[in-house]
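thought: fold this chain, then report.
action: predict
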Amino acid sequence: LVESLGLTSFRLIAHDYGSTVAQEIISRHKEGSLSLSLKSVVLMNSGLFPEMHRPTTVQKLLMSPIGGLLTGFMGESQLDRSFAKVFGPNTRASKEEIAEFWSLIAYNRGNRNIHRMLHYVADRKANEKRWVNATKDPKVPVLFINGLEDPVSGSHMADKYRSEVLEPTIVELEGIGHYPQTEA
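observation:
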């Protein structure tokens, strides 16, 4: 498919869970094992350094042995309450946006599998050395956009990124939470 489209390179934009995939792609780029050339990466509010990631109470419960049972009790109102805790103080999602987010999550019963998706937290720990090393010296331009009000991966993650990454480029968004792509 890539050859039929004539693609030789790509740029990557990732947020949160997607940044886990991005870290693997950056690792492969450094190893020279990608079939395409990685030109640049934008990462947004991500748990790039596992020890700095602060999962919410709901995430911790969903990752526990009872996580699968809890998904049956989750709905649009729970999503609204959870999002209120990770958005910036003046940038909360509207009721319409919450309804749209929920429709995407619930599509094809996806809401019943949220607990399974959270395996990325364990994946980050299992691949920590490889992915963190790739993040520290990516060999490709990386921009880290960070909503500083995010309790999960906000200002504390930006501080860690700045202290660990060679030549860090960071855009810090005051008053913005976990979803800079919708909040700002």
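thought: worth noting. Strands lie at 9-15, 37-44, 142-147, 170-173.
final: tokens above.
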